[in-house]
Amino acid sequence: MSEKxxxxxxxxxKAEVLDNPTPVAVDFWASWCGPCKxxxxxxxxxxxxxxxxxxxxxxxxxxxxELAVKYGIVSIPTVMLFKGKEEPKRLIGLVDAQTLREFxx
Length: 105
Fold this sequence. Notes:
Blueprint: E1 5-7, H1 13-18, E2 24-29, H2 34-49, E3 55-60, H3 65-70, E4 78-82, E5 89-92, H4 97-104
Parallel strand pairs: 1-3, 2-3
Antiparallel strand pairs: 2-4, 4-5
């Protein structure tokens, strides 16, 4: 995991994601997930491009199943974008950098 990606847990999710004034992208992933591993460098690249305007975080669904259930994660990787009190948007599956940029814009 790159230094641009902050690992969040059930204990830190509210403070790092929900209460954050900046839009927050949350990558729901697992260590055994092949597509998750392929998405990781794409997220790292896009995180550098969006530095300062979008915060990037990761949630390991095996270690934080309560968050996966709460947000209805049934397929990984799933990237959710939280913007204040708005309903989060979601992007499911392996995507390229351009698709991720458009999702975050």
